[in-house]
Amino acid sequence: MKLYLKNKNMKIKTMNDLFTDMVKDVYSAESQLIKAFPRMAKRVNSEELRMSFEQHLKETEIQKERLEQVAEILDITPRGKKCAAMEGLLTEAEEVMEEIADPELLDAALIAANQKVEHYEIASYGTLATLAKMMGNKEILDLLVLTLEEEKATDLRLTELAVNVINEKAAQA
To answer: 159 pLDDT band (50/70/90 cuts)?
Structure first.
């Protein structure tokens, strides 16, 4: 299986290379989210959803700092890669904000867009945590598991908000 790398000079040859590449990828994802969350929070109709987005923005900033700690432990820079997956997910969210005029329907669509983001992050952090455990790095593992649990909690919070409040209003729009 051939790995596609935008930077042709970088070759992933070892598990450490793969781990480093994945740390940089998720660091880029978190950086992109920090820029996107304020715009989404401004567009939502539901105050509960706005507060959820604002809370997750604060968590994301802390998660980015944790990745900087991971990078420091690994003696690498977390920068240098652009997460194409997150870029695509956020492009979809932007399209939703442009295409949906009804505020309740937009709230439901933005929850769905954000749950796609959460699922990507859960997959990323889960994989990184598994690799950190395999590599025997408990300090990094603890940082990653903490973030993984926060991402799962955010996904659950969004689901509860959608099921108990937002989707019903959107269905009546």
So the answer is: very high
